[in-house]
Amino acid sequence: MNAVKPETAREWLKKGATVIDVRSEAEFQERHLPGTTNVPLNRLGDEIARVAPKKGQPLLLHCLSGSRSAAGEALLKKMGYQNVFNLGSYGRAEKILGAQDKAGKKD
Description:
By secondary structure, this protein is α/β, with parallel strands linked by helices. The protein has helices spanning 6-14, 25-30, 44-51, 67-78, 90-104, and strands spanning 18-21, 37-38, 59-62, 84-88. The longest helix has 15 residues, at 90-104.
């Protein structure tokens, strides 16, 4: 698995990247990160156009361990999406997105 560097992910988030959780619907309903969109890996090829109609749209994918999001990244790149990155595991994505939330809020 080749996950994106946290700093790079945060830069893409500032530019409006969409965060996609490629876990199953049941996993997503049980627990998910705020602001993420659920598109299960097995439906990613069919449903990505609804979430990201433009192939230049930055996309950050994550799952439970990072392996499904890596597979999703490879699939989307084959489909012509240029700015697709693997956030990795749920815990790693939570840290990256959580740091983004904290950075954006003024105490």
